[in-house]
Amino acid sequence: MSKTVKDTPPAPEENVDLPFEEALKRLEGIVDSMENDELPLETLLAKYAEGTHLAQSCQARLAEAEVKIQQLERKANGQFTLKPISLVSPGVETTAP
Fold this sequence. Notes:
Layout: H1 20-36, H2 41-71, E1 72-74, E2 80-82
Antiparallel strand pairs: 1-2
Helix pairs in contact: 1-2
């Protein structure tokens, strides 16, 4: 009978489509496990790699959400709509020499 390893992380490809909340929960679980469990080096490295992937994924999703929030513009009737992103920073003049 084969023994299943409890701490085997899922392949990084399996985490690609996780909703933000699930990815964050998984990342918190990895951190807790790495801090509190006595794990072999190979398992720690695998968890570190998965955690790094999840952290990057969460950061990218947060950056996307931030852009969408910054784009929201309230119309006169009180509804919100997305406004186009300006590629010029506020306060920077764009006149040609």
